[in-house]
């Protein structure tokens, strides 16, 4: 116990807009810190080794597998989890599109899928259905909601691109 | 609000959707507790043998360690098997018990449990526990155990053994010119739900609130009460959300036993989350060796069917699933012999996995039927229609409903099956060979006794409840729809509750029986609540409904009104105001109609059509599109129903092309126990899936529901395999169809 405390390092993270200063052990992952210390259990643990994408969160706007990040590596970073994207009464457009298209069943991979989709759109490489499928392939869904997830992501992408097209005209 | 359309039958968005997409739906590992400690299991590194010595000294002095439990120091547990059979899904044999003694039955079996103040400290200390073993040579390959195959002496409760032979399949086969006999094999699979198997036990001065990943809260409750001798009043299991299960969470697993053991020992709250690798140390879809022999006349009519399986099971239990029975009922045939044998291997016990038995057996049968169609030079669909069964010949009963012909027709039309050129290797696009294949699917439409309640609450809302589970199937939503329709209420004013032992009794959620069983139970509870409300309305002083009966009133707009004159009414508010606790509740029990079941056989059916593209140079197979036409009675919710079928089809793609649990045969250890090397379908593997529900009226229960959880996967792998043959001319009888099998 004493040993663990001696090894702790102070880290400041901005989580969903709120600054948090925490003493963390150097081996503590960002995912475990979010889930066990901050009670932000929206980020899910599905494999703990970067193979399933359920733990995807946005770090400085980029999608990241939080199980592969040590919390100490992210000192000073801005973290957005699914809870930070929107709550049940004020859903982010991607969250609303997931509900509309029944883009999940058990819901366990869903926060990761949504954070990943938001990050992917921001990256700006996804145009076609095949590109979306490829770029979302790091997020597994065992319930097999893939076609519905694609529909949800395409809808949000189209809405995002719509004003641009009008402006171009 | 008085003109609310019926919700049942619509594509109603999931009522739990907003919670799930905002990360607020809480799963078993996500409940907080004061003074919580974390447990980690130490997996055995051998597959067979004994523990000689455990040196926990280094682990004991590691930071934060609270306790280390092994078979040598664990609390007393019952010695006999019986208490462990409180598991309502137990199979014949002696159930596995973690930390029972020094014996190792399978690789990864927990040899010790470390409990520490943090997750990290528990995990670290678990690596410091030194276990010395005396290892024996394991056998994990069912094909090597073939000679030791046996008929299970005790049949598994609820699983029909193969029916006795009819006619003389052997003699007919021998005398036939058109015939085939082949062996089919489906590699072992693991369920791999996204949520890790986990238990959080909240200790509250001897009272336990357990959050356990389960497909039915009453099963873990009964189990821990029986095994640990606990007072049922002092144990609550609460699992409102389950992150996928597919059969894996039917039986209690060692996370439950160990977490409760630790909580009782330490008198503290405990969390045990298994690792992804440890999820390969429990239930799996058994490796099977299947022989199918078919013969037919020149007219394409089947003259004999023989289907025999040797299915893997563990050394300690005789797990059985209905693998071959389908071959006696899907097609019309006078001579049928079916057989089911087991062979023991040194693994954990297999378990039900989405459409257990049917998924495997129908793959073999439907691949053999495809092979037969080429021998007969008949269109594969035509062959199915020629042998269409109008009655269940296994049981000698008519079907309660069977719109499979409509499924074949609408599926074929949507798929444009008529564009298929019959010869293998005759269709090509670019550098890819194109193949069309089809198959039939079948699953039994089952029901189980369920309890339910319906209540008007102080705020005027309707609450319907049942102790079943929603594992992603949409149970919350369909129960809400049924409640809203019963009271003509907007769906927003209805709450459904599942997944808690405080709710009316239900068994595990599985076998596709939850929608029909819980749905009808809630329907009955709503009817009982209406009776109760009318009774109370009649009893009011100067009641305007003093002579009313439930048949002569309508329930809407927050009131009970006479159907003949809706101005004569009593408001729910008035009744609630007079009710104790401001709540009026009614209970009901649903049980399947035994008389009906004696007269009729009830099954769901599907017609699955697949188009594949095969790059011959690279051996890569892509599933371009699937059409799945389903005949499954009344559809309660088009959105969640469609999702069930999509999910089944996607798992079928995995079974056909990707999924295979591989053992190191020397060590008996699974070498791909992770999601990187055990490939489940990813986004890029899934293109177009078209789901069709054909109209089917069924009278087996008042809602006309048959269930959808399993049928989507049945036949999917055979349709894909048959399409691969059509594309390439190469028949792969051992799934998955990986690149090496095509090059």
From TrEMBL, chain A:
It holds the Pfam family Fer2_2. InterPro entries: 2Fe-2S-bd, 2Fe-2S-bd_dom_sf, 2Fe-2S_ferredoxin-like_sf, 2Fe-2S_ferredoxin-type, 2Fe2S_fd_BS, Aldehyde_Oxdr_Iron-Sulfur, Beta-grasp_dom_sf. Residues 9-85 form the 2Fe-2S ferredoxin-type domain. It comes from the Bacteria. Keywords: Iron, Metal-binding, Oxidoreductase. This is 2Fe-2S iron-sulfur cluster binding domain-containing protein. It comes from Chelatococcus sambhunathii.
TrEMBL record, chain B:
Residues 144-157 have a biased composition (Basic and acidic residues). SUPFAM superfamilies: CO dehydrogenase molybdoprotein N-domain-like, Molybdenum cofactor-binding domain. Residues 142-169 are annotated as: Disordered. Pfam families: Ald_Xan_dh_C (PF01315), MoCoBD_1 (PF02738), MoCoBD_2 (PF20256). Residues 22-137 form the Aldehyde oxidase/xanthine dehydrogenase a/b hammerhead domain. This is Xanthine dehydrogenase family protein molybdopterin-binding subunit. It comes from Chelatococcus sambhunathii.
């Amino acid at each position: 116990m004493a040993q663990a405390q001696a090894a702790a390092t102070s880290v400041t993270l901005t989580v969903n807009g709120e600054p948090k200063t925490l003493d963390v052990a150097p081996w503590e992952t960002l995912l475990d810190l979010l889930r066990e210390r901050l009670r932000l259990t929206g980020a899910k643990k599905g494999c703990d080794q970067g193979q399933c994408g359920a733990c995807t969160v946005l770090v400085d706007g980029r999608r990241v597998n939080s199980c592969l990040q040590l919390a100490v590596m992210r000192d000073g970073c801005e973290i957005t989890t699914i809870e930070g994207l929107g709550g049940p009464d004020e859903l982010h457009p991607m969250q609303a599109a997931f509900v509309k298209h029944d883009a999940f069943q058990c819901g366990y991979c869903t926060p990761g899928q949504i954070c990943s989709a938001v990050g992917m759109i921001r990256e700006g490489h996804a145009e076609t259905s095949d590109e979306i499928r490829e770029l979302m392939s790091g997020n597994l869904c065992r319930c097999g909601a893939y076609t519905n997830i694609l529909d949800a992501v395409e809808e949000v992408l189209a809405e995002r691109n719509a004003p641009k097209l009008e402006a171009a005209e | 609000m008085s003109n609310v359309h019926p919700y049942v039958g619509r594509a109603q968005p999931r009522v739990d959707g907003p919670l799930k997409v905002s990360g607020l739906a809480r799963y078993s590992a996500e409940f907080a507790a004061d003074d919580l400690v974390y447990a980690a299991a130490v997996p055995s590194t051998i597959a067979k043998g004994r523990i000689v010595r455990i040196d926990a000294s280094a682990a004991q002095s590691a930071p934060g360690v609270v306790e280390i439990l092994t078979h040598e120091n664990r609390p007393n547990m019952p010695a006999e098997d019986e208490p462990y059979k409180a598991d309502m899904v137990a199979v014949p044999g002696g159930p596995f018990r973690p930390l029972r003694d020094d014996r190792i039955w399978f690789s990864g079996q927990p040899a010790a449990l470390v409990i520490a103040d943090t997750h990290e400290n528990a995990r670290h200390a678990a690596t410091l526990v030194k276990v010395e073993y005396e290892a024996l040579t394991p056998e994990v390959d069912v094909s090597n155990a073939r000679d030791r195959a046996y008929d299970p002496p005790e049949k598994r409760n609820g699983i029909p053994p193969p029916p006795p032979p009819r006619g003389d399949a052997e003699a007919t086969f021998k005398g036939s010119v058109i015939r085939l006999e082949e062996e089919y094999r489906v590699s072992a699979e693991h369920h791999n739900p996204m949520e890790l198997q986990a238990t959080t036990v909240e200790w509250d001065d001897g009272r336990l609130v357990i959050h356990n990943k389960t497909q039915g809260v009453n099963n873990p409750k009964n189990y821990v009460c029986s095994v640990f001798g606990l007072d049922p009043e002092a144990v609550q299991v609460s699992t409102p959300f389950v992150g996928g299960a597919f059969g894996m969470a039917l039986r209690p697993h060692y996370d439950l036993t160990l977490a409760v053991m630790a909580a009782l020992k330490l008198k503290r709250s405990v969390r045990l989350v298994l690792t992804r690798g440890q999820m390969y140390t429990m239930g799996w879809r058994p490796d099977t060796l299947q022989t199918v022999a078919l013969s037919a006349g020149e007219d394409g009519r089947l003259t004999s069917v023989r289907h025999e399986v040797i299915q893997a099971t563990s050394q300690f239990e005789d797990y059985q699933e209905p693998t071959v029975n389908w071959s006696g009922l899907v097609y019309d045939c006078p001579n049928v012999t079916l057989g089911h044998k087991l062979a023991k291997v040194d693994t954990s016990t297999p378990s039900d996995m989405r459409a257990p038995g049917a998924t495997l057996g129908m793959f073999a049968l439907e691949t053999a039927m495809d092979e037969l169609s080429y021998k007969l030079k008949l269109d594969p669909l035509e062959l199915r229609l020629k042998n269409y069964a109008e009655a269940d010949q296994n049981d000698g009963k008519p079907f309660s409903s069977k719109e499979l012909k409509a499924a074949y027709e609408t599926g074929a039309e949507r798929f444009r099956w008529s564009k298929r050129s019959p010869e293998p290797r005759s269709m090509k696009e670019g550098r890819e060979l194109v193949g069309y294949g089809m198959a039939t699917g079948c699953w039994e439409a089952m029901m189980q006794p369920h309890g339910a309640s319906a209540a008007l609450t102080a705020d005027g809302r309707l609450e319907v409840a049942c102790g079943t589970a929603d594992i992603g199937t949409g149970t919350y939503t369909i129960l809400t729809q049924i409640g809203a329709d019963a009271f003509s209420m907007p769906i927003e004013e209805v709450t459904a509750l599942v997944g808690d032992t405080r709710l009316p009794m239900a068994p595990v959620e599985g076998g596709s029986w939850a929608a029909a069983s819980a749905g009808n139970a809630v329907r009955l509870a709503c009817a009982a609540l209406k009776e109760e409300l009318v009774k109370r309305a009649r009893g009011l002083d100067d009641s305007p409904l003093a002579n009313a009966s439930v048949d002569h009133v309508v329930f809407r707009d927050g009131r009970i009104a006479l159907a003949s004159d809706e101005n004569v009414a009593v408001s729910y508010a008035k009744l609630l105001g007079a009710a104790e606790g401001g709540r009026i509740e009614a209970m009901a029990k649903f049980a399947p109609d035994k008389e009906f079941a004696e007269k009729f056989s009830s099954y769901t059916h599907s017609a699955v059509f697949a188009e594949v593209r095969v790059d011959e140079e690279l051996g890569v197979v892509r599933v371009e599109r699937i059409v799945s036409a389903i005949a499954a009675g009344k559809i309660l919710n088009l959105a969640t129903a469609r999702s069930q079928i999509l999910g089944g089809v996607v798992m079928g793609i995995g079974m056909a092309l990707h999924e295979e649990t591989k053992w190191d045969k020397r060590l008996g250890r699974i070498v791909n126990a992770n999601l990187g090397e055990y490939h489940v379908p990813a986004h890029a593997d899934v293109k177009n899936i078209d789901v069709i529900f054909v109209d089917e009226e069924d009278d087996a229960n008042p809602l006309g529901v048959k269930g959808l959880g399993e049928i989507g996967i049945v036949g999917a792998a055979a349709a894909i395999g048959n399409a691969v043959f059509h594309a390439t001319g190469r028949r792969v009888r051992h799934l998955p169809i990986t690149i090496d099998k095509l090059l």
